Amino acid sequence: MNEMFVGTSKEKFFYHNTLLCLVRAMQGHNITVDLRNDSYICGHVENVDGYMNMSFTNAVFCNPRGDEYHFQQLFVQARNIRYVHIPETMSILNTIRNELTHGKKKEQKKPSEKSRKAKKALKQHMETVASLNN
What we know:
SH3 type barrels, 28% strand, elongated
């Protein structure tokens, strides 16, 4: 995963406090996802959002009767997901650790320039504090 997680504050909460970070680390891998209606999807995970909605490419959907349907692109809502199969070749702890530490590498922001109003308020505050010491 080469990009930092971007989303709403609610999505960031889910990312850092649930196993969403593990599922998000599956982007770019071929995995199997079991759905609540006893069907499953095998395919290449293109994207996972902050609510665990998943987009697949080159996916195969298999219904409970065993019929297979091929899709170039397929979107699955999180509420329909029962189970995400993590490949055996992936170390779960290392994957989570790598995903979370990568998200903390942010660009260094330069200190923001204070507005004239903020500078004036700070100056008045400092004068008030100085007069209290006298």
